[in-house]
Amino acid sequence: MVGLLYFSVNAVPDPPQLRVVVTGELDVLSAPGLRGAVARRSAEGCSSVVLDLDGVTFIDCTGLSALLACQQEVAASGGTLSVAALSAAVTRVIELTGTAGRFDTMTLESA
C-alpha cells in the first residue's frame, strides 16, 4: 500500500516580491508545482522570489533540480531568488551536493 504524499506551495505575491512557502515532500511528483508557482511570478509583477523551505520534510534530486532551475529562470529574466528558513532535509541535500553556494540565503526576518 502506498501512503499519501503531502505537498503544498503557497505563493504570496507582494510586488515586487513573491514569497513561496513550500511544505512537504519536494520530489519528482511535486517539483512541477514549485516550478509553476515560480514561473507565474512575472505575471504577478514580481522580480524577487523568496523560497521558504522550512516545511520541506524530504527532498530528492528532482526537488534539488527544481530549486536550481527556479534560480536559473529567475536570474535569466533579471530577477533574484533567495532561500530562507531551510529545513534540515534541504540543508543536508544542498550541503552533500555542494550546491549551497548556488543560492542566496536570507533570514526569515529580512525576507
Explain this structure:
With 111 residues, the chain is α/β, with parallel strands linked by helices. The chain has a single domain (21-110), classed as STAS domain (Transcription Regulator spoIIAA, 2-Layer Sandwich). Helices cover 32% and strands 34% of the residues. The protein has three helices and five strands; from the N terminus they run ββαβαβαβ. The chain has a five-stranded mixed sheet with strand order 1-2-3-4-5, sandwiched between helices. A hairpin with a 2-residue loop joins strand 1 and strand 2 (17-26). The chain is globular, with a radius of gyration of 13 Å. The termini are far apart. One of its GO terms (molecular function) is anti-sigma factor antagonist activity. It comes from Nocardioides marmotae. Residues 20-111 form the STAS domain. This is Anti-sigma factor antagonist. InterPro entries: Anti-sigma_ant (IPR003658), MlaB-like_STAS (IPR058548), STAS_dom (IPR002645), STAS_dom_sf (IPR036513).
Radius of gyration: 13 Å
Please name the CATH architecture: 2-Layer Sandwich
CATH superfamily: STAS domain
- What is the CA–CA distance across the termini? 41 Å
Helix content: 25-40%
For the record, what CATH class applies? Alpha Beta
SS summary, helix count: 3
Overall, the morphology is globular
Along the chain, the helix and strand elements come as EEHEHEHE
Assembly state (oligomeric):
single chain
Average per-residue pLDDT, rounded, comes to: 88
Q: How would a textbook summarize the main sheet?
A: 5 strands, mixed
Q: Report low-confidence residues grouped into runs of 5 or more.
A: none
Number of domains: 1
Sequence of strands across the biggest β-sheet: 1-2-3-4-5
**Portion in beta strands:** 25-35%
Structural class, judged by helices and strands?
alpha/beta
Which fold name corresponds to the CATH topology?
Answer: Transcription Regulator spoIIAA
Number of strands: 5
Family: Belongs to the anti-sigma-factor antagonist family.
GO molecular function: anti-sigma factor antagonist activity
Organism: Nocardioides marmotae
Protein name: Anti-sigma factor antagonist
